[in-house]
Design a protein that fits this description.
The complex is a heterodimer. Chain A has helices at about 5-10, 15-55, 60-85, 95-100, 105-155; one strand at about 90. Chain A is mostly helical. By secondary structure, chain B is mostly helical. Classes of the chains: A mainly alpha, B mainly alpha. Chains A and B meet through helix 2, strand 1, helix 4 and helix 5 of A and helix 2, strand 1 and helix 4 of B.
């Protein structure tokens, strides 16, 4: 695709507006999804802490309990990593938008906003994918810890 | 000079128009607002798409963990 001229850009201003609105809606859904992931990660951290506290208050088989504690620690660690504050990309940077785009046409400004939002969306997506991976690892560690805790608590009475 | 010309990527429209200086870091997910920054946060197709894939397994995994925890409590209290 050859580079667009300013004239071509001006002709496509309505399309650019639509594209910009759609990309912005995608970023809004991405933001909401990230907040949901944070909430779920905090739930896992709290659950791992509560389960570890329960295990500490019971008689249990020591080796299994040690592995259960390790699994809970891993669950809490990956959960905290998943919920940790990250720096996400936002568009536009207000000063740059005002100073550089005041003299430009509406179509040029829309094109710059939409294209930059694409880059920001892709950058944020990669961070969110890592966050989701951390959450699944945390959930897996928690599940393993629960199984080990059941075995540790029940085997103490065998 | 920043932007597409600096990167020498003339074939990609995103690279052609993207302005890296328009981006800035935000410590949490920003929620776009405004006439050209708004938009429906949850269009129906977005919700439908969100129900696909691994999320369908999530309630079952959480239920399994809750049941396992309850079993551990019962076992420890019985003995």
């Amino acid at each position: 695709m050859s580079p667009m001229t300013p004239q071509q850009l001006a002709e496509r201003a309505p399309t650019l507006e639509l594209i910009n609105a759609e990309i912005t809606a995608s970023i809004a859904r991405q933001a909401s999804s990230g907040r949901n992931l944070d909430t779920k990660a905090v739930l896992l951290i709290g659950y791992a802490g509560a389960a570890a506290s329960f295990l500490a208050s019971r008689s249990s088989q020591h080796v299994l309990a040690a592995f259960a504690y390790a699994a809970y620690a891993a669950a809490a660690g990956t959960g905290i990593w998943s919920a940790a504050v990250r720096v996400y990309q936002d568009v536009p940077e207000p000063r740059r938008l005002f100073t550089e785009y005041l003299a430009r046409s509406r179509a040029e400004t829309l094109a710059a906003l939409a294209a930059t939002r694409v880059d920001a969306f892709e950058s944020n997506s990669r961070k969110q994918a890592r966050k989701a991976t951390g959450w699944w690892i945390s959930l897996g560690c928690l599940a393993v810890g629960m199984i080990l805790m059941i075995l540790a608590v029940s085997s103490a009475y065998w | 000079m920043t932007g597409p010309a600096a990167r020498g990527d003339d074939d990609d429209p995103v690279a052609q128009f993207s302005d890296p200086d328009l981006r800035h870091g935000y410590a949490e997910y920003p929620a776009p607002q405004g006439q050209y920054g708004g938009g429906p946060p949850y269009p129906p197709e977005g919700r439908a798409a969100a129900r696909q894939g691994p999320r369908r397994l999530l309630p079952w995994i959480i239920a399994a963990i809750v049941v396992a925890a309850a079993a551990a409590v019962v076992v420890s209290l019985v003995h």
